[in-house]
Amino acid sequence: MWKKIWTKLFTWFDERLGLNDLYKATLDRPEPRGNWWNTLGSASLFLFVMQGLTGIFLTVYYTPSPDHAYDSIQYIMTGVQFGWLIRGIHHWGASLMVMVVFIHMLRVFATASYKYPRELTWLIGVGLLLLTLGMGFTGYLLPWNQKAYWATTVGTAIAGSVPWAGEFILKALRGGTDLNALTLSRFFSAHIWILPLLLTGLIGVHIFLIIKHGESAFPDKED
Amino acid sequence: MKEEQKKTLHEKYQRALQKGERFWPDSIYKDLVVSFGIFIVLILLAAFVGIPSEPKADPSDSAYVPKPEWYFLFLFKFLALYGQIPGIGKIEWIATALIPGLALLLLLVLPLVDRNPYRHYTRRTLALTVMGVFVVGIIALTMIAGVPTATDEIGRMTLSTWLQFLSGLILPGLAILLLLGLTLLARKWGAAARRAQVWIASAASVGMLGLGLVVMLTAPPAAVSEVEVADTIGEKFTLGADLYSIYCTECHGEDGKVTVITGVEGLEGRAINAINSTDIMYTLTDETLANIINYGQPDLGMTPFGRTYGGELGPSEIDYIVTFMRYSWDDRTELPSDAVLSSIPELLPGEVPSYEVHISALVKRYCISCHRPGKDNRNYLMTTYEEILGPSDDGPVIVAGDPNSLFLVLVNGQEQTAEDGTALRAMPTNKLLEQKYIDMLTLWVLNGMPNAAAEAQALSAPTPTPSP
Prior knowledge:
By secondary structure, chain A is an all-alpha fold. Helix content of chain A is 73%, strand content 1%. Strand 1 of chain A pairs antiparallel with strand 1 of chain B, so a sheet runs across the interface.
């Protein structure tokens, strides 16, 4: 009887949502014989989702102002149940994500998977690598500790040394001549809104292109 | 790519699909295994390695050596090395904008630049060797990032800096130039050119990593900064108590209840509020207290203590002092159990005190407040063992075994007159030490001022073992 109800329910939803087509298009796809190196893309996605979830949790307690940022993070580490674990995962997840994304790029390079017809997938992939680094750069400032403050001072100064546009870039990043409250709120906004939205959008296109062209086959001697 | 090539490519891919697997469940199984492994690694890192504590950002501390996240270290090191090149090294934007920009652009448009239609590694020698040298270069730069570039007294680069140059700039640069040059010869030389490329890339990689290792291993160990960071209220309280006794007791006394300052040059007899009063604790917030310490209240005689305004304290340290005050004197707070007041260990009968265990704690609580650099103390500093042994403006202060040492005389409350006529006041100036501490200091001097605990142990009378 349960099976009957289940079939009915599924058919009802399938007729309206096209679940079967969705399943065929996204999951039930043929692929060339797999390789463990091909898992790095999905591992990057997994890390992105983890960073998103732990990050959302952290924003519950984090305050992006120079007066309270440091204390709010100390509160997360010592006052919130399992706060240390969530922040620990977010902290190490960032490092791991940069590493995994970079090795993923090296894999794609080594198997020359960026060649026809997957040129755009590569282009977007490089964009994703840059955005990941951008997430690392903006996130590094948020704890507002000595390391964060001075690394960002130097990092933004480097960006400010670009000829002609340097001064504008520096002011846009810092919101003033020195690091201040505005810098922190800009980095915070970039870290939790602008960059993640861009990342999500580009990941969507990246995955669409992978499904469209299929995963590239491991090259053999004739390739 | 010609239409024909595209067609064969598609056909070949279709054949690969026929022989392949399904995304669900074959590929996704591998994906899940790897992701789960990463998840476990994350939990382990978060639980067992954790996140190192850092002090609060202090814009006034310009001596702080900036350190970026590890994945930007190679760029930092590249800039540092580039800046050492005579002449061109002064044009900063070449290294900060032009070179990284070009590298990035090349990476972005790689599919358009790389016109080679082949995919197997044996047919992509140039692409793979160039990328290999790049990646090994990044690794080498990251390895040597912790070793500073330095010049000697007359402005020549040190040997280590030369090796860093070789490992991080010259070898990779040279290798890439050679690799590109050999490609031009490839038509004439064929396979020989490709073999040469592999050899060059391998040799350069071994050289970069080898030199990087040499630089790393021969580098003097980096000085470990001794900044103590508190994470919990208890730890803040403990550190704050020490800071309070060094920076605040001179005027406000050990327990903050001083209302008339005594024994402080220039502030003698000044009436102040007792800072441990309920009035102060209830009406001033932590932020206000921190501001007072930071900016001082010059009109009332209190100098600024914040580093930004000419004092010696950073934001974290001020925060610790405020925590100490709040949890000591505000009757609405309850001291967390992990707070410890660093106490001065009591002496057992017959035990001889040592600097390491007893005297350093005593001195920190009662003496360093004035006997540190920048205070009026007749050049008698007490922050280390060597400093305590003297001498000061008044000659030797402590003489081993001499109960009439100037040190002990002043501690016992007898005023003296220096040779130049200055009055030497009894120490500490506001209130003499408890008798047991005076005895401790006397015992220490009589036994020749032992430094380490073991030395004092050797001098101590053997503790009587209870007979069975």
